[in-house]
Amino acid sequence: MVHTDWNDEQDSMWAHGPALRSPRIGHARELLQLCLVLLDAALIVGTGMLAQRLAPAGAGVEDGLTRVSVLAAILFAGLMGLRGAYGSDRVGVVREQLLLVATSWLAVAAILVASAFLFRVEGAYRTPGTALFLAQSGMLLAFGHGFLASQLSRRFKARRASLQSVVVILLGHPGEYGAIRDRLAERGVAILASHIMAPGSRGFARDCLVALQTVRSVLAGRRCDSVLVFGRWREERAIDELVNALSPLPVPVILMADPAINRVLGRRQVRYGAITGYEIRRAPLTMTDRLVKRGFDAVVAGGILVMISPLLAAVALAILVETGRPILFAQDRRGFGGKPFRILKFRSMTVTENGPAIAQAQKGDKRVTPLGAVLRKTSLDELPQLINVLKGEMSIVGPRPHALAHDDQYDDVIATYAYRQHVKPGITGWAQVNGHRGETREIADMEARVEHDLWYINNWSPWLDVKILGLTALKVWRDDKAY
Question: What's the rounded Cα separation, in Å, for the pair 456 and 266?
């Protein structure tokens, strides 16, 4: 089954979205990348020249800031190029562009500052004008790349532009094609033609020749960057036969990973000589990871404690007035590597259970005080755990710690339960922002929570912690599972 995408009006069977138009950007990929490099350089140098012109007389800047800006432009463009930021598969993704710009510009600033001190450079490197230049250039670069990426993304999704053109060969069901076309379009990839084949069919060898002729027909009239083959990798015989049939083509043939393989390829690669493996279950965070996470925890916890200190005092006073002492409730929990610690909470119940048998809080639980119900609903009772974070016993984000009695209970029935202790427990976590908070009445409830915790551990990054923290702030006021 052959389909030519640039003529959707001729084949309504494949109308999975807006009809594709001839792209305005089309194959000017190299020109766009060159323009981006030149625009970045012009913006950085222009900002440096402007900062120099606006510098007050006698500031010692002279013409030094222009030289700094030229060096900064070269370093920034080089770093962005090495990291693939100008690549056609990334230039239209807003989040990736902002992250690449921020980290690359911070690296440039660090190099400039370090060189000033290491080589005892005087003048422009150490003036306030340089700091202003770095700040202004960074903001302008972020705005420019973010704006361009958003515009390209919008045009890609509407299929009004593309940066790559391909032929797609699908070894599978025709119903899979629509999702493939949409995913490629979002990355600026236009499908010039497609051919769908059924592996194992009697006419498969003939279909391979038809696929070859399809690609040749496209190449005769258009520029085609590559041929993308989609299919289940277990169909090894069919893939080999197809690849052999396409061998005369003068363009690369790329076998795209199926969903199962793609999950593995996203893991960290490990090599033992000529043998390649992929880490499907990561070890506890490395020393560098732990230092980054610890720094994030200390900054966030310290900052929040300073800002909310009046609120903490008000809550403590309210508890004291309602039910008297104790104001804080401490309970034994297990932390990183199973190390025990005492978690702190504002007391929200009339009891302070901390033994071998602890009943979970339930909806309408009579042990919960009226003020405690409000504290639990808004998670204000968890705020003293910021002290646990500063002490290094907990993290801002991580698997929620459970009472020792519950740890022992679930460790016996859920094989992967103990793996949660490969990171420090957190005040909030991936499970909590995905609806797995509160009472776990069934084993399946805890299994779902553990599954999310393990996903977090295997996919941890500083940006994931920031995302979870933001989702927590949005979700805390409308969570009906907190009681």
Answer: 15
On whether the CB atoms of residues 297 and 468 are closer than 8 A, the answer is no
Cα torsion 332, 337, 339, 340 to 10°: value is 0
331's tokens = 């309970």
The Cα–Cα gap between 306 and 295 comes to 17
d(CA 406, CA 386): 23
pLDDT, tens digit (0-9, with 9 covering 90-100), for 78-133: 999 998 888 878 888 888 898 889 888 988 888 887 776 666 555 545 556 677 78
Sign of CA dihedral 254, 257, 262, 267: negative
CA-CA distances (angstroms) from residue 18 to 8, 11, 303, 482?
A: 9, 13, 48, 44
What are the residues facing 426 on neighbouring strands? 395
Half-sphere exposure of 279 (CA within 13 A, CB side): 12
Which own/partner contact pairs does 155-160 have at CB distance under 8 Å and 24+ positions apart? Answer: 155/24, 155/25, 156/92, 156/185, 156/186, 156/187, 156/188, 157/185, 157/186, 158/18, 159/17, 159/18, 159/19, 159/20, 159/21, 159/185, 159/190, 160/21, 160/23, 160/24
Provide the token pair at 442: 């069934």
| Closest among 244, 251, 201 to 226, alpha carbons compared | 251
Q: What is the pTM of this model?
A: 0.58
What residues does 344 pair with on adjacent strands? 330
**Inter-residue contact 400 to 436 (CB < 8 Å):** no
Query: What does the pLDDT look like over 447-465, one tens digit per residue?
Result: 888 889 988 988 888 888 8
